[in-house]
Structures are given as structure tokens and as C-alpha cells.
Amino acid sequence: MASPKNDDVTALSYEQARDELIQVVNELEQGSSSLEESLALWERGEALAKRCEEWLIGAKARLDAARSSAE
Fold first, then answer.
1. Total domain count for the chain?
2. Is the residue at 27 inside a domain?
3. Which residue of 50, 57, 65, 71 sits 20 to 30 Å from the alpha carbon of 12, by its own alpha carbon?
């Protein structure tokens, strides 16, 4: 279950979520965070990745609908 801190991702655009996810991954790859910080970053990254996926699924549905109406 998402923590309240990660619930704010629903307001992010795809680009905002993607850019923040890139920052999270970069921070995790540096390996300089404590275990607790790394876990929080991981959870944030999961929430951001889910938001990006939601945007992409929505975009695909819109494209499919547009293609269907054009036929």
C-alpha cells in the first residue's frame, strides 16, 4: 500500500513522474543513502513507475479509440 507521502503522484503529469523517477534511480544507483532512505526512495520510485504506467495505458486506450473511430 502506498504511503501518504507517495499518494501525491496522482497529480503528476507523465513527464513530471518520469523525470522524478530518473532522479530517484540516479540517487539509488549512487548508493550513498542509508537503508531507510533507500527504502523510501524505492517506494517513491515504485509509485512513480506506477503513475507512468497509468499514463501510458491511458494514452494507448485513447489511440486505440481514435483508430477505431477512424475505421
1. 1
2. yes
3. 65
